[in-house]
Amino acid sequence: MNQPRTAVYPGTFDPVTNGHLDILERGCDLFDRIVICISSNPAKAPMFSADERLTMIETAIASNGLQATVEVKIFDGLIVDYAEKLGAIALLRGLRAVSDFEFEFQMALMNRHLNNRLHTVYLMPKDEYTYLSSSIIKNVATYGGDIHRFVPANVEKRLKEKFSKTEGE
Ligand code: ADP
Predict the structure, then answer these.
(1) Any ligand 1 atom below 6 A from CB of 46
(2) So what CATH class is 6-168?
(3) All structural domains of the chain with their residue ranges
(4) Residue whose CA is closest, atom 1 of ligand 1?
(5) Quick one: pLDDT at residue 105?
(6) By C-alpha distance, which of 97, 103, 149 is closest to 124?
(7) Residue 35: φ, ψ to 5°
(8) What is the pTM of this model?
(9) Which pLDDT score is estimated for 163?
């Protein structure tokens, strides 16, 4: 049997947003298997632990019915090495408005230098998610703003719990 066409989808996902999920759904049309690789890099000082981010993603993909195609793992190190271990042929990334371009271009060329067989594939989200980031969601949620259009329901709930606890402390 042919190997499933696998892509890795790396990121911090702190927390996962509808923008991330939009790219994931598009990726599912192109690949047989997508492995979401959550970076455990503490240098980014994430708000949620890697395990919490994993649980939030798994709950969100189960409610989107994507669990047959998508796996979620935590990794640390070089994504090209991890991709090779998983037998991936592509690295999936989302491209938002101009701000992503320079960094993504640099990463894609470096990853190609490290592994010429792994192709970086960029997909663009729906317009309404083009300016969406995990950071802006955390900022708005800190002050109790309405984020329900931009994150899955389980993430909205988790953020509310987090900030109501902080308020009470
Ligand atoms: P990183 O720390 O690698 O930037 P992120 O969790 O922020 O990780 O993002 C992972 C991937 O998802 C990146 O390719 C990023 O461009 C993409 N992404 C994040 N938010 C969106 C969005 N709103 N629309 C499309 N792609 C997005």
Answers:
(1) no
(2) alpha beta
(3) 6-168
(4) 11
(5) 95
(6) 97
(7) -110, 110
(8) 0.94
(9) 87
Q: How many CB atoms lie within 10 A of CB 156?
A: 18
Choose among 167, 169, 168, 125: nearest CA to 150.
125
Q: Once rounded to an integer, what is the mean pLDDT over residues 48-61?
A: 97
AA identity, residue 16: V
The residues that bridge with 36 in the sheet, in sequence order, are 9, 72
Please write the tens of the pLDDT for every residue from 66-101: 888 999 999 999 999 999 999 999 999 999 987 889
Hey, which residues does 151 pair with through a beta bridge?
none
Q: Report yes or no: 33 and 71 within 8 Å, Cβ to Cβ.
A: yes
Query: Using a CB cutoff of 8 Å and minimum separation of 24, what contacts does 136-145 make?
Result: 137/15, 137/17, 138/14, 138/15, 138/47
DSSP strands (E only) in 25-115: 33-39, 70-75, 90-94
| pLDDT at residue number 103 | 93
Whether residue 132 has its Cβ less than 6 Å from ligand 1: yes
